[in-house]
């Protein structure tokens, strides 16, 4: 059955904690109704940290929120694709989602990916930068003040200061100086600065490629890097009025307002998102 265009859907108050005008004329109920019409042609995209999982002082201790895994397992057979698009490496994501069937994993902002449990494929242009990143991680551990958590991800280095927020200026100044010295790109995040290779790959590009033949898509994110994914959905909807793109922000105290201003809907927390997705799975079935 052909789904309705966005313009034919009734406009009702959005689920939006930021109180801004939504970019799409859909509230949550109408967005899921539109999705149900053509669920097999929809893609659901999710960031990981702060979206599917609460942020933790120790990045290695982060786990999906309650109900998330069961909801994704229920949604995957119903929609065209479910994809996790994260700053984490694919192998980290595989540890948490590898037991689910039909989940695509995009790691390191799309520098590597694995489709439906397949092998991990790395962007060839990024591979020569692995030694540079390893050396940078060692240098960061030697030069940055105690309280900084240095996370080496093979193709990027994340400098966390969540447990020592007073170090923000020192860590960011050091990181940006190293990026200038080595020709790296900088990605700011929630109390973290990440340095990555100068390779044209980001969440927006992943989404742009994955939705070209889709009838619609949802993207759930909490950080500034997710705004590029929102922008990709907006562009796809602008090019095709029949395409339904829904951008969902997950609230947080650091970047929540900026992300919410770019979104259609806002969810309170990763835990609340688990409930939201469980309800969505029931609607789509």
Automatic annotation (TrEMBL):
One of its GO terms (biological process) is trehalose biosynthetic process. Its EC number is 3.1.3.12. Pathway: Glycan biosynthesis; trehalose biosynthesis. Gene3D superfamilies: HAD superfamily/HAD-like, Trehalose-6-phosphate phosphatase related protein, domain 2. The keyword Transmembrane does not apply. Its cofactor is Mg(2+). One of its GO terms (molecular function) is metal ion binding. Residues 1-23 are annotated as: Disordered. It is an enzyme of class 3 (hydrolase). It catalyses: alpha,alpha-trehalose 6-phosphate + H2O = alpha,alpha-trehalose + phosphate. Keywords: Hydrolase, Magnesium, Metal-binding. Removes the phosphate from trehalose 6-phosphate to produce free trehalose. Belongs to the trehalose phosphatase family. This is Trehalose 6-phosphate phosphatase. It comes from Micromonospora echinospora (Micromonospora purpurea).
């Amino acid at each position: 059955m052909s789904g309705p265009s966005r313009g034919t859907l009734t406009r009702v108050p959005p689920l939006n904690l930021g109180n801004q005008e939504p970019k799409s004329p859909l509230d949550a109920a109408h967005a899921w109704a539109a999705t149900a019409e053509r669920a097999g042609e929809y893609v659901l995209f999710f960031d990981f940290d702060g979206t599917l999982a609460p942020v933790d002082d120790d990045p290695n201790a982060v786990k999906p929120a309650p109900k998330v895994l069961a909801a994704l397992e229920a949604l995957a057979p119903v929609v065209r694709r479910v994809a996790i698009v994260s700053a984490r490496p694919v192998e980290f994501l595989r540890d948490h989602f590898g037991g689910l069937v039909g989940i695509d994993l995009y790691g390191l902002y799309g520098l590597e990916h694995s489709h439906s449990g397949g092998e991990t494929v790395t962007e060839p242009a990024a591979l020569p930068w692995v030694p540079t990143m390893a050396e940078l991680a060692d240098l960061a551990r030697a030069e940055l003040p105690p309280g900084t958590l240095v996370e080496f991800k093979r193709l990027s280095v994340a400098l966390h200061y969540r447990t020592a927020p007073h170090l923000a200026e020192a860590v960011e100044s050091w990181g940006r100086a190293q990026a200038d010295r080595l020709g790296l790109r900088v990605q700011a995040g929630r109390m973290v600065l990440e340095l990555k290779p100068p390779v044209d790959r980001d969440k927006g590009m992943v989404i742009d490629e994955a939705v070209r033949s889709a009838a619609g898509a949802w993207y759930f994110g909490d950080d500034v890097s997710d705004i590029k994914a929102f922008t990709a959905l907006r562009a796809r909807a602008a090019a095709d009025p029949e395409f339904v793109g829904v951008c969902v922000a997950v609230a947080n105290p650091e970047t929540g307002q900026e992300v919410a201003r770019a979104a259609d809907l806002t969810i309170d927390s990763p835990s609340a998102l688990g409930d939201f997705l469980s309800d969505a799975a029931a609607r789509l079935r």
